[in-house]
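Need a sequence for this fold. Nothing fancy.
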């Protein structure tokens, strides 16, 4: 016997999907694809690799988004036909197949619904993510490196382009800090809910007594500045230091003074970049990140939203937003949303979508409260 409520559930899901398509704007999406396709077809596009990469990346993601929406619409049509056939023939097996397909579509539509909540001023932009080791000594440095891998794996699963700008390695293990870009539409809106203090509890591999250790790391997420925007930075407002790159060698990065550290004297913001091959490239990358951070500070000042957008991240007890517990039990729990999973290994391998979706919904509810 086919569940008599299936048609009602499908109708509700179709209604939600229709609202999502209206918010996203299928006509607008198709127009963007046509415009980007035209840009991608320009003969000399690859004479400018940075622009070419941005154009082709944006085109690929918008094509994927349209294909996803089209696929959901087709599957909803097929599901309605399957339910009709199951009812006509009283086919229990087809009824079970329909229920599984409905559950799958609900999950996909739920993800699409989260995307429609990303309507903030900066949400559509690429992101610059900085991870810093906090309290906890060597374990904190190791934890910071675990988080770096986690976010890079998350981006890899989604086929998002990433670019590591700077890594400062700790003496014994792990990293002191790392900064990287995620170049994809809505990367900032998506990852901004990851900003805050993360806490790790485990049996320390660096403690000979095998005691349980708690350590912290801070994650900062800012939107990447657009090429058309201008943040005037006076030459006498910055100090530029050059030094020899540290960490693993290769590509001659640690044989010349190619690494660059830029300090913005009025605000104290420091940006380092050492992963490019030349000092000029590293300086350009560092200035781009500095401009992104100054842009955010400027807008925060204008709109009085500093605490809302970034807040104070101290990477210590009392203000953690997520806990990763490896001992005495296995659990990762977000303390804002109460979303949790019992497989930390999977999370550290980049399975963050559940946490991010819950975070975006939590932020929307908080803003509407």
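Here you go.
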């Amino acid at each position: 016997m086919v569940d008599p409520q299936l048609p009602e559930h499908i109708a509700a899901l179709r209604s939600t999907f229709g609202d999502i398509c209206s918010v996203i704007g299928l006509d607008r999406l198709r127009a963007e694809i046509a415009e980007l396709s035209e840009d991608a077809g320009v003969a000399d596009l690859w004479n400018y690799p940075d622009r070419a990469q941005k154009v082709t990346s944006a085109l690929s993601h918008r094509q994927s988004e349209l294909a996803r929406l089209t696929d959901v619409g087709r599957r909803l049509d097929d599901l309605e036909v399957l339910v009709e056939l199951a009812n006509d023939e009283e086919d229990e097996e087809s009824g079970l197949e329909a229920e599984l397909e409905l559950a799958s579509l609900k999950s996909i539509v739920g993800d699409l619904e989260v995307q429609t909540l990303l309507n903030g001023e900066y949400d559509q932009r690429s992101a610059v993510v900085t991870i810093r080791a906090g309290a906890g000594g060597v374990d904190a440095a190791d934890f910071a490196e675990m988080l770096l891998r986690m976010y890079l794996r998350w981006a890899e699963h989604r086929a998002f382009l990433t670019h590591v700008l700077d890594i400062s390695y700790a003496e014994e293990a792990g990293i002191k800090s790392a900064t990287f870009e995620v170049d994809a539409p809505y990367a900032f809106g998506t990852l901004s809910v990851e900003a805050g203090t993360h806490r790790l509890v485990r049996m320390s591999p660096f403690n000979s007594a095998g005691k349980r250790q708690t350590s912290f790391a801070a994650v900062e997420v800012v939107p990447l500045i657009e090429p058309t925007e201008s943040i005037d930075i006076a030459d006498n407002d910055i100090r530029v230091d050059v030094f020899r790159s540290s960490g693993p060698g290769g590509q001659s990065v640690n044989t010349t003074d190619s690494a660059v550290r830029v300090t913005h004297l009025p605000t104290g913001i420091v940006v380092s970049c050492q992963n490019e091959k030349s000092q000029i490239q590293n300086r350009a990358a560092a200035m781009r990140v500095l401009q992104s951070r100054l842009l955010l500070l400027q807008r925060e000042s204008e709109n009085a939203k500093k605490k809302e957008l970034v807040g104070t991240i101290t990477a210590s007890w009392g203000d953690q937003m997520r806990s990763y517990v490896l001992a005495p039990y296995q659990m990762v729990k977000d303390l804002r949303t109460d979303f949790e999973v019992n497989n930390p290994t999977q999370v550290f391998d980049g399975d963050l979508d559940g946490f991010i979706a819950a975070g975006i919904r939590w932020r929307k509810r908080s803003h509407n409260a």
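For context: The longest strand covers residues 212-223.
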